[in-house]
Amino acid sequence: MGDDPSSSSQMSEDDDDRSPPLDPSSSNKARNCSSGSGCDHIIPYPDQVLENVLENVLCFLTARQDRNAASLVCKSWYRAEALTRSDLFIGNCYAVSPRRATARFTRVRAVSIKGKPRFADFNLMPPNWGAHFRPWVSAMAKAYPWLEKVYLKRMSVTDDDLTLLAESFPGFKELVLVCCDGFGTSGLAVVASKCRQLKVLDLIESEVLDDDVDWICCFPESLTCLESLIFDCVECHINFEALERLVMRSPLLNKLRLNRHVSIGQLHRLMVRAPQLTHLGTGSFNTLEGNPQGDQELDYVSAFASCKSLVCLSGFREILPDQLPAIYPVCANLTNLNFSYANITAEQLIPVIRHCHKLQTFWVLDSVCDEGLKAVAATCKELRELRVFPVNPREDTEGPVSEVGLQAISEGCRKLQSILYFCQCMTNAAVIAMSKNCPDLVVFRLCIMGRHRPDHATGESMDEGFGAIVMNCKKLTRLAVSGLLTDQAFSYIGQYGKLVRTLSVAFAGDSDMGLKYVLEGCPKLQKLEIRDSPFGDSALRSGLHHYYNMRFLWMSSCLLTREGCRDVAQALPRLVVEVMKSDEEEETGEYVDILYLYRSLEGQRDDIPKSTSYTTNNNLNQPIGGSGGCGRWCCGPVAVVMVVENRKEPKSVKPQMYRVRFGFSDSFSVKHIQG
Q: Over the range 498-516, which residues count as b (16 or more CB within 10 Å of their CB) and which as e?
């Protein structure tokens, strides 16, 4: 499945039967030879020749968009593309059923599935909303016994799911879980023990339950195939001795990211045993509580110097700044440096960054101030991606970075392609300068913390700054806007943002016209995220022509009514419209709290939480499910879901251990997030 709209419409229930993966050449020979006769005297039919050629050509198509386009040419191309697709991407686990996907694509070896929308990170989704991996792994166990790779993002995964995965695919090699939850160390232990050919086990910003199981010691005692092991999000203690032995038994290991329970002394021992590492997450980068003196006496400079292949460095979760000079020997070779957990000053950053001439990706906290960003601009001429996160995400604080740092980056890093920049104040002049100095920008996300903040130098709206971004950055595909914005800013986006695929909006706009400009002017728009903006039913209806081409629309705390949501659901029968609201809101309230709209071939899903009640009444003003319950309206194949749930309050966290993402919850959300 692909990102573009054609991916959903390509699915069919009468696809070819399940068959094992075949080498294209052997497949061609089988078609051209009849049973019991030689191939020399067989003349294939013209359509067989075409299918043979197609399959050989399509094997070279790797981009999802290209494959989706090829499958739309005609029926023979449609069949050939399905037979040759080995990588399956599902952008929304509810867009298509596992049964339909496995029936069409019969030779898949790698599967990527995305589940909950991004707003699950901001406590805006009910905790039991769905996105369960179980239906998918059950279907794949029957259809793809040769499956090798699984990538999941924001899915609910249980230990039983991991057990079924480990037992169903004897040649399984790669498991990547990003922002997933529901599983624990018991499930990891099964994967480690039963997947004997495992090359990649990456746990990225997932919530892993501590089942008091030593999962590290469950890897094979013989030499392993392990190439990547990432577990920096695992909050429980690990068996370091078992980890050290595992590293010694994994000669192919090149990526290792450790959690905060690994001290700098233990890191030293691992580096000595694995000098071949190319990617390293350092863990705490602090001394062990029980042996601070012993840790300090180790020669960390020599350990880093021995890792001559190191190009990516991250971690530093509880950093001891005095130890930073230890990484100097590897700085000249680094292309990726992540200091987004390191609360360091400009004085501590500058001696490090002045050696990083090859750096292409840099993540950092705003504790480095504008002076630190100036040093980055002066040194890192090859920089392609920059993310600046706040130490303190509160709106009422004085931020240490400003338009000064942004302008310095734009002047010094002319090859920049992606930026995420949190600040408390900004000017149009600095944003316009970036649009001119960095015309190759593909991603521009500027988060001015605080609502409706104007250009702090002139007091004007930020319309002209964001207008310049969409005018001058012709390759722009992702945009996040903030600050004081009028409908004029959205007019610029609609007029010039012809390649924009993802747009995030918070506290912006004057009227429905703002959203209309975007929906009518951005033909490539796939993901639209809006919160706390004055857009209502008229704006929502203006996108009826485009919603089938989008992956999703999310609107929270806007001016949408139940009637408007129902009109969209009735007009577009292949959309699922889910309306969520907190139980603090009265049933008779004028506006809905949250709208989540997405396309689906399957209509209504069957895993709404247990508190859901079903009705065929189309009147959205009718009370649903009682206080704290859920209800659903079905308009033919349309699914309109009303969900009422209590919101969980975010856990208290250390500022340096957590990162802020673009403000899509009350005030600006704090989320321990890596991607």
A: ebbbbbbbbbbbbbbbbbb
Alpha helices in 225-299 (DSSP H): 240-248, 264-273, 292-296
Annotate 297-320 with DSSP letters as a single string.
TS-HHHHHHH-TT--EEE--TT--
* Local confidence band at 608 (pLDDT 50, 70, 90 cut-offs): confident
CA distance 336 to 344: 18
pLDDT reported for residue 648 = 37
Q: What's phi and psi for 337, nearest 5 deg?
A: -135, 125
Residue 537: its H or E element: helix 537-541
Is residue 471 exposed (0-12), middle (13-18) or buried (19+ Cβ within 10 Å)?
middle
Return the structure tokens found at 489: 């800013």
**CA separation for the pair 233, 181 (Å, rounded):** 11
Between CA 473 and CA 432 the distance in angstroms is: 11
**Residue-level pLDDT at 651:** 37
pLDDT (tens digit per residue) in 210-228: 999 999 999 999 999 999 9
Pairing of strands 110-114, 87-90: parallel
Asked if the model's pLDDT at residue 24 lies above 70, the reply is no
Please tell me the distance from the alpha carbon of residue 657 to that of residue 318, in angstroms, as a whole number: 8
- Average of per-residue pLDDT across 463-469: 97
Give the residue from 74, 656, 671, 579 showing the smallest Cα distance to 391: 656
**Structural contact between residues 575 and 569, judged by C-beta atoms closer than 8 angstroms:** yes
Cα Rg, the chain, nearest whole Å: 26
The one-character DSSP state at 16 is P
Residues in CB range of 636: below 8 A, 6 or more apart: 573
Note the pLDDT tens digit of each residue in 545-562: 999 999 999 999 999 999
CB 229 within 8 Å of CB 203: no
Amino acid letter at 276?
A: Q
Place of tokens 């050290």: 244
Digit-coded pLDDT (tens) for 188-214: 999 999 999 999 999 999 999 999 999
Q: Tell me how far apart the alpha carbons of residues 488 and 493 are, in angstroms, rounded to a whole number.
A: 9
Q: Is it the case that residue 11 has pLDDT exceeding 50?
A: no
| Band (292; pLDDT cuts 50, 70, 90) | low
By the 8 A CB rule, do 631 and 640 touch?
Answer: no
How does DSSP assign 138-151, residue by residue? HHHHHH-TT--EEE
Say whether 352 sits in a helix, a strand or coil.
helix
* Region of residue 182 (left: phi > 0; alpha: psi -120 to 50; beta: else): left
Q: Which residue has tokens 């990162």?
A: 659
**Which residues, 6 or more positions from 53, have their beta carbon under 8 angstroms from its beta carbon?**
none
Beta bridge partners of 612: 630
Q: What distances in angstroms separate CA 163 from CA 109, 176, 191, 192, 329, one per listed residue?
A: 19, 15, 7, 10, 43
| Mean pLDDT of all residues in 16-20 | 38
CA distances from 145 to 110, 137, 171, 174 (A): 11, 11, 8, 14
Q: Which two tokens stand for residue 165?
A: 């995965």
Look over the chain and give the mean of its residue pLDDT values, rounded to a whole number.
83
Tokens of 123: 């406590």
Verdict on whether the full-model pTM lies above 0.70: yes
